[in-house]
Design brief:
Elements (H helix, E strand, L loop, with lengths): L4 H4 L1 E4 L3 H16 L6 E10 H4 L1 H4 L1 H9 L11 H12 L1 E3 L5 E3 L5 E4 L9 E9 L4 E11 L2 E4 L26 H11 L3 H11 L4 H22 L16 H11 L8 H17 L3 E4 L8 H12 L8 H22 L4 H4 L5 H15 L4 H13 L17 H21 L8 H14 L12 H4 L4
Parallel strand pairs: 2-5
Antiparallel strand pairs: 1-9, 2-6, 3-4, 6-7, 7-8
Helix pairs in contact: 2-5, 5-6, 8-13, 9-11, 9-13, 10-11, 11-12, 11-17, 12-13, 12-15, 12-17, 13-15, 15-16, 15-17, 16-17, 16-18
This protein binds iron/sulfur cluster.
The site of iron/sulfur cluster has 13 residues, from helix 17.
Pathway: Carbohydrate biosynthesis; gluconeogenesis
EC number: 4.3.1.17
GO molecular function: 4 iron, 4 sulfur cluster binding; L-serine ammonia-lyase activity; metal ion binding
Length: 461
C-alpha cells in the first residue's frame, strides 16, 4: 500500500515531527473522542524517546495544545510556548470537547527509561470521571514524520490522523524500488508519473495534486524567507546563534548573479534557514521529518536556480515532478524501514530525506527511472549508520548543519547517478534493508534519547 506523497510532505510546526507534530495529533485525536460531559481530569504519560528529549523537542506543549484541539497545520507556532506558561498559571486546560479540566505540567509524567514494546515514542493518555473511573485510556505511538498509530490498530493502519487515506486501488502499486522500476517499465512513465497517477487515483484530480504540491513548495519558500530575516539565538538554552540571516546578506552581496561557484553555499543557506526556523518552533514542511526538513527545499532550490532547462515556464512542472519523485522514494523508506530517528537513528531522517532529494533532482535533470533509483541509493548508502545524538535533546546540533551537508551530498548523488547508465551494484532495496537492520542493531543511546554521542560529550553551558 503506497504512502501518499501528502503524508510525507505535511505542513506542521517545529521542532520535531515525531516529538511535536505526532504528539499534538495524538492529543487532538484523544480529546476529540472524549465524551462531552463527565471528564474531570486528564493525565499524559510519555515514554522512551518522547520523555528523554521531550522538553527539548517541545513535546509537552505540543500534546497539551493537541488536547485543546490544536492542529499542526493551522496552529499559531507561537501558541505552544504560551500554552506552557499559561498552563502553569491557569492550572486548567480547555479540552477539544469543550470541557475545562484542572491541568498542570505535572500531569504530564515522563518515563525516559521505559520503552513501550511497540515503538520508542509511546504516549498514554487517560481521562477520568468524578468518581475516579477511567473514561478513556489510549496508548499512541508517534512513529516518525508526524504519523501516529494507536494500540489496537494494525501496522497497516499507521496513518496520520489528518492524512489522506490511501487504499490499494492505485494503478501502479509498489512498495519497493524494484516494483517501482517494474511499474515504470510497464507503463513507460517516469517515477513522477507513477506517483502522480497513484495520487490522482486517491479521489482527486491531477490539477488538485499539482496545486497542492505547489502550495507545499510555497510554504517551504515562505519558511526560508521568514528565517533569513530573523537574528539572535535559538531557544532552548544552548545559545546557538542563528546564522542564515547573516549568510543571506553576505551571499546576496557576494553572489548577486548566482554564479555556480557559490551554488553549494546557497544550498547550505536554504537548508540551514529551514532548520533554524524549525528549531524555533516555526512553520515548516515535514519532509519527511522536521529534523530533516531543510534538505528537500535546499535541493529543490538548487534545481530551480542552476538547472538551465528549468526555465520560468517549466518551473512549476519541475517542482511537481521533483516532489512526486521524492515522495515515491520516501514511501519506500516508510514502508520497508523507518523515517523515525527514535527507531533507526538519523539515517532514517536525514538519510531518507537526502535519498528522496537525490531522486527528485535526478528526475528533473532528465534521469531515467534507473538513474533516479541509483541516485536515491547512493544518497542513502553514504548516510548509513548515521546516529541521532542531539545536544540537550534540541533539534539544533548536529541537526541544522547536518541538513546542509546532506543536501549537498544529495546533489552529488544525483550528479553521480546521471553520469552512469542506471546499472549499479547496490540496489535501493538493498540499501533500505541495510538501513533498517543497522537501525535495529543501533544502541538506543543513538536513537533520539540524547544519551550518547555529542549529547554526552559536549557539555551544556
Ligand atoms: S540528529 Fe538527526 S534524527 Fe536526531 S533530531 Fe537531529 S535531525 Fe533528527
Amino acid at each position: 500500500m503506497p504512502v501518499s506523497v501528502f503524508d510525507l510532505f505535511s505542513i506542521g510546526v517545529g521542532p520535531s515531527s515525531s516529538h511535536t507534530v505526532g504528539p499534538m495529533r495524538a492529543g487532538a485525536a484523544f480529546a476529540a473522542a472524549l465524551p462531552t460531559a463527565g471528564v474531570v481530569g486528564v493525565r499524559v504519560d510519555l515514554y522512551g524517546s518522547l520523555a528523554s528529549t521531550g522538553h527539548g523537542h517541545g513535546t509537552l506543549g505540543a500534546v497539551a495544545a493537541g488536547l485543546t484541539g490544536a492542529d499542526p497545520e493551522t496552529v499559531d507556532p507561537d501558541r505552544m510556548a504560551l500554552d506552557l506558561e499559561e498552563l502553569e498559571r491557569a492550572g486548567a486546560l480547555r479540552l477539544a470537547n469543550g470541557t475545562t479540566v484542572p491541568f498542570r505540567l505535572a500531569d504530564i509524567v515522563l518515563h525516559p527509561l521505559t520503552m513501550l514494546p511497540r515503538h520508542p515514542n509511546g504516549m498514554r493518555l487517560r481521562a477520568s470521571g468524578a468518581d475516579g473511573s477511567v473514561l478513556a485510556d489510549e496508548t499512541y505511538y508517534s512513529i516518525g514524520g508526524g504519523f501516529i498509530t494507536r494500540d489496537g490498530e494494525t501496522d497497516a493502519a499507521e496513518v496520520a490522523e489528518a492524512a489522506i487515506p490511501v487504499d490499494d486501488h492505485v494503478p501502479h502499486p509498489f512498495s519497493s524500488g524494484a516494483e517501482l522500476l517494474v511499474e515504470c517499465a510497464r507503463s513507460g512513465l517516469p517515477v513522477s508519473g507513477i506517483a502522480l497517477a497513484n495520487e490522482v487515483a486517491l479521489d482527486t484530480s491531477e490539477a488538485a495534486v499539482r496545486e497542492r504540491l505547489l502550495g507545499i513548495h510555497t510554504v517551504m519558500e515562505q519558511c526560508v524567507e521568514r528565517s533569513v530575516r530573523r537574528t539572535g539565538t535559538l531557544p532552548g538554552g544552548l545559545d546557538v546563534r542563528r546564522r542564515s540571516a547573516t549568510w543571506y546578506e553576505q551571499l546576496v552581496r557576494d553572489d548577486p548573479d548566482h554564479d555556480p561557484l557559490f551554488a553549494m553555499e546557497w544550498v547550505n543557506l536554504v537548508a540551514m534557514a529551514v532548520n533554524e526556523e524549525n528549531a524555533t518552533g516555526g512553520r515548516v514542511v515535514t519532509a519527511p521529518t522536521n529534523g530533516a526538513a531543510g534538505i528537500i527545499p535546499a535541493v529543490l532550490s538548487y534545481a530551480l536556480t542552476y538547472v538551465p532547462e528549468i526555465t520560468a515556464d517549466r518551473r512549476d512542472d519541475a517542482v511537481v515532478r521533483f516532489l512526486l519523485t521524492a515522495g515515491a522514494v520516501g514511501s519506500i523508506y516508510k514502508e520497508r524501514a523507518s523515517i523515525s530517528g527514535a527507531e533507526v537513528g538519523c539515517q532514517g531522517e536525514v538519510g531518507s530525506a537526502a535519498s528522496m532529494a537525490a531522486a527528485g533532482l535526478a528526475e528533473v535533470l532528465g534521469g531515467t527511472p534507473e538513474q533516479v533509483e541509483n541516485a536515491a541509493e547512493i544518497a542513502m548508502e553514504h548516510n548509513l549508520g548515521l546516529t541521532c545524538d542531539p545536544i540537550g535533546g534540541l533539534v539544533q546540533i548536529p541537526c541544522i548543519e547536518r541538513n546542509a551537508i546532506a543536501a549537498n551530498k544529495a546533489i552529488n548523488a544525483a550528479r553521480m547517478a546521471l553520469r552512469g547508465d542506471g546499472v549499479h551494484h547496490v540496489s535501493l532495496d538493498q540499501v533500505v534493508e541495510t538501513m533498517r537492520q543497522t537501525g535495529a542493531d543501533m544502541s538506543s543511546k543513538y536513537k533520539e534519547t540524547a544519551m550518547g554521542g555529542l549529547a554526552v560529550n559536549v557539555p551544556l553551558c
